[in-house]
Known about the structure:
CATH topology of the largest domain: Rossmann fold
Number of domains: 2
Distance between the termini: 56 Å
Number of helices: 11
Strand content: 5-15%
Mean pLDDT: 85
CATH class of the largest domain: Alpha Beta
Structural class: alpha/beta
CATH superfamily of the largest domain: Response regulator
Oligomer: single chain
CATH architecture of the largest domain: 3-Layer(aba) Sandwich
Low-confidence stretches: 1-6, 230-237
Order of helices and strands: EHEHEEEHEHEHEHHHHHH
Helix content: 40-55%
Radius of gyration: 19 Å
Strand order of the largest sheet: 2-1-3-6-7-8
Amino acid sequence: MNHQERSCRILLIDEHPVVREGIKAILKQDSTMGVCGEADGLRSSLSQWDELKPDMALVEIALRDADGLDLVRRLHARDQRVPILVVSGHEERLFAERALSAGARGYISKRAAPRELLQAVNAVSRNTIYLSEEIKNQMLTRVTGRNGTGQGPERQSRLNRLSDRELEVFRLLGQGRTTNEIATLLRLSRKTVETHRLHIRDKLSLTDGNKLIQAATHFVMDESRFDQFEDGRSETI
C-alpha cells in the first residue's frame, strides 16, 4: 500500500489484531483512506502518534494496559487538529459522552455495519461530529428525561459521579464478571478492584454488594433502565 497516494492517513488503535485487520479491510473500500500505522496499547499508541503524525486516529477505548479515555485525552492534547473516532465495543451512552469530552470527534459501535463505519470516518476526517443513531437516541433520552419515570436526569447524574475506571468496573460487573476476572482483564490487583467496588457503592448509594450487581446488570442490559432501578432508598437522590 502506497500511503502517499492516500488523502487520509489513519492510525488504528485496538489491542486485537483480528479487529484491526477487519477495520483495515473495510477502509480499503474507500481509496481516499489508508492505515499508516497500528498500535495495541498506551505506549505504542503515543509512540506511533508522535512518529507518524497521522491525519486521523481510530481508537478502541477498551485497552488492557491503559484507560482508553485517558489515551484519547493524551492524543488530543498532543495535537488537537487531528480528529479521533472511537470505535468501541462499549455501547453505553456514558462512554460516548466521556469520549467526546476527552477530545474525540465521533463514537461508533463495533456492531455497526461497514458502510456506517466509512460514513463515520469520512465525517470525522472533516472534523464533523459523528454519533451512531443509537447513541444519539440515548443522549436525547437523557436530556429530555422521557424514560417513564420522571427521574431520568437525576438518576443518570449519579452514574456521572463514577470515574472512568469505576465505570469500566461497573460495566464488567454487569456482564457477570467476578472480582478476580476484572482484575485480570484490567491488569489490576484484586484489592484495587475491591476498592473500586466500594467507591461505586458509595457514589451510587447502594447498600450492599447484591444491590451493586443488580444495578450494574440493569446498566449493561439497557442503560435507560438504570433510571428505573430501585435501590431501596426512599429519599430522592
